[in-house]
């Protein structure tokens, strides 16, 4: 009986450690930042980690993103541009951060169930990125501008928060799928 308790404790510890490692990786990837002069949303490397971690660690990736967001809210300067605090999460880019959490849990749940084909993997990654992260990000971006008294047209909203990011995100999706394919072969 003691062995089972020890194994359970080790399992919990390893899950917390793995989630923390991916939270740190997200924070590091956030520092790969390219500001866009026409948008408050920068190009960052975060989405690669957000999309890859569910493929490798399942639902724990959602926990890693919760850790990332909560520790960032607490003041750790690991949001894009070495920033931290609640103001980032309630600001123009906060919806993307919330989208990271949701997308990680959704993808993690799907990929915990069974291995997926390469085509299926690409489709799920695209859905998580464009369907979840973009949707939540664009909603908050629109809300943020509305609170400031500026109502964006759909075209303006998409040109600030989606269209410029599509080529980079497609690259990250392909990279995450490629790494996952190699991981499956080595497993």
TrEMBL record:
Residue stretches spanning the membrane: 12-32, 38-58, 65-82, 88-110, 122-145, 157-183
InterPro entries attached to this UniProt entry: BioY
Sample GO molecular function, one term: biotin transmembrane transporter activity
Subcellular location: Cell membrane
Keywords, comma-separated and alphabetical: Cell membrane, Membrane, Transmembrane, Transmembrane helix, Transport
This protein's record includes keyword Metal-binding: no
Coiled coil: none
Main location: membrane
Entry keyword annotation includes Aminoacyl-tRNA synthetase: no
One GO cellular component term: plasma membrane
Membrane topology: Multi-pass membrane protein
Protein family (similarity comment): Belongs to the BioY family.
Protein name: Biotin transporter
Organism of derivation: Pseudothermotoga lettingae (strain ATCC BAA-301 / DSM 14385 / NBRC 107922 / TMO) (Thermotoga lettingae)
């Amino acid at each position: 009986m003691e062995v089972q308790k020890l194994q359970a404790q080790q399992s919990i510890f390893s899950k917390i450690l793995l989630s923390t490692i991916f939270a740190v990786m997200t924070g590091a990837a956030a520092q790969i930042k390219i500001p866009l002069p026409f948008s408050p949303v920068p190009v960052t490397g975060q989405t690669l980690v957000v999309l890859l971690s569910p493929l490798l660690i399942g639902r724990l990736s959602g926990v890693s993103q919760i850790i990332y967001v909560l520790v960032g809210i607490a003041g750790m300067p690991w949001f894009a541009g070495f920033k931290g605090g609640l103001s980032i999460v309630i600001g123009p880019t906060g919806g993307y951060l919330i989208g990271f959490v949701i997308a990680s849990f959704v993808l993690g749940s799907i990929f915990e169930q069974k291995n997926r084909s390469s085509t299926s993997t690409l489709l799920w990654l695209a859905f998580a990125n464009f369907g979840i992260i973009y949707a939540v990000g664009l909603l908050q971006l629109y809300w943020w501008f509305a609170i400031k008294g500026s109502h964006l047209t759909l075209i303006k909203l998409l040109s600030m928060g989606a269209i410029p990011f599509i080529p980079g995100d497609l690259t990250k999706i392909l990279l995450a799928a490629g790494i996952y394919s190699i991981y499956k072969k080595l497993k």
